[in-house]
Amino acid sequence: MNSRRVVITGLGPVTPLGIGVGALWTALLEKRHAVRRVQAFDPSRFRSQIGAEIDGLSIGDFVPKGYRKAAKIMARDIVLAVVAAHQAVSDAKLRTRCLIERGEATGEPNLDSTRFGANIGAGLICADLPELAEVLHGASVDGQFSFAKWGSEGMNNLTPLWLLKFLPNMLACHVTIVHDAEGPSNTITCAEASSHLAIGEAFRTITRGAADVCICGGAESQDNPMALLRQEIGGRLSIRNDAPALACRPFAADRDGTTISEGGGLVILESLEHAQRRGARIYAELVGFGAAHDAYVAAQPGVPHPEGRGTAVALRKALRDAGIGPEQVGLVASFASGLREHDRAEARALQSVLGARAGQVPIMNIRAGLGNCGAGGGAIDFIAAVLAVHHGTIPPALNSRPLDPACEPLNVVTEGPVDAAVEYAVSPAYAHAGAQNAALVIKRFRA
């Protein structure tokens, strides 16, 4: 077990269902969905033409005035992370340089910046296609791309800082600069498992005493043609274009894939002593983390082990780290995204770990209304699980009936919201096309 207690004091979701804790939680309880026909670009040439998008996001509303010029080198993923950071820091009532400069906090910072760390998950940031197309056209000869012309002329049409818009580590770079976080920092790029792995690393950073506070989680936007094409080639998308609200169907017998999305979330972890010293509101306690590699998936990319071996190993490690047994688990915040093999593998993993209680433990799932936003999805799941433990309420899953017989006897909560006094909740995550698995254990806070 961990000797230094770690608590969750700030939540910063940025999702198509809403920005900020209140907006997301209300949307989940009211059973809203955000999947629609894609509007950011013309999707008509794709088989899947639906996804979840965030409207009306302006970076100027979340950074100091002097930092707004940096927006020129922020890809959409970076913007999402910066907005999530502002939400998390504000929710935790941390007085960082950003909030003080914006007039949202007064006085001096209430944390040591050298002991303020960051661990943020990121995906494959897609290039700005209109910008890149113009440059590629200038490096073509008779309609064919020319490496020689690219080196002599094409690259000169890119801005000097162009690459900085698309490096995955730039999410953490901008967040740490804006909020003056000078502690240990790292970026994790492990697809859908990224957020959980980042939160787990931040958890470890605090337990070993290397930081007092960490901002962690992940963000990604798949709301672009390149990401949509990548997911479509992988065979992971639903083509229910005529019924977008019903397209993503986790655990359902008639599921046919997920949908693209954008979003994510960052959370504030603190040592209990630090949080109590500044009188922070505490949502819950993070008590366990486990990670695993699934060699089966590594050998056959995109095909999970039929028994969910990697997920099961990660869950068992997390429970052992928390010092509890499966009989103490009161809620599972499942990761299922409507992918036939992956949902079934996760169900098998939960049955293996929970044993005879697999049909009794409530299973929460929020993916149907949000779709899959890659590296950011796990953070949204984690935030929803923390809120469920904090409020003693489980929001219902959408589109999960009729349940796939192969996923029975899982107790997927589809009615409600349901009141439940949850002591321990577990949140698993796994990469759809890779071999990374992770799990986190959340505990109801008791001083």
Walk me through this protein's architecture:
This protein has helices spanning 21-29, 76-92, 97-101, 129-138, 147-152, 170-179, 194-207, 225-233, 272-277, 295-299, 309-322, 340-354, 377-391, and strands at residues 6-15, 18-19, 35-37, 50-52, 116-122, 140-141, 144-145, 185-188, 213-221, 262-271, 284-293, 331-333, 362-364, 393-394, 411-412, 418-419, 424-430, 436-443. The strands form four sheets. Strands 1, 2, 5, 8, 9, 10, 11, 12, 13, 15, 17 and 18 form a twelve-stranded mixed beta sheet that branches. By secondary structure, the protein is of the alpha/beta class. The longest helix is centred in the first third of the chain and has 17 residues, at 76-92. The protein has three domains: 6-125 and 162-277, 3-Layer(aba) Sandwich (Peroxisomal Thiolase, Chain A, domain 1), CATH 3.40.47.10; 127-161, no CATH class; 288-443, Peroxisomal Thiolase, Chain A, domain 1 (3-Layer(aba) Sandwich). It is globular.
Gist?
The protein is an alpha/beta fold. The chain has helices at residues 21-29, 76-92, 97-101, 129-138, 147-152, 170-179, 194-207, 225-233, 272-277, 295-299, 309-322, 340-354, 377-391, and strands at 6-15, 18-19, 35-37, 50-52, 116-122, 140-141, 144-145, 185-188, 213-221, 262-271, 284-293, 331-333, 362-364, 393-394, 411-412, 418-419, 424-430, 436-443.
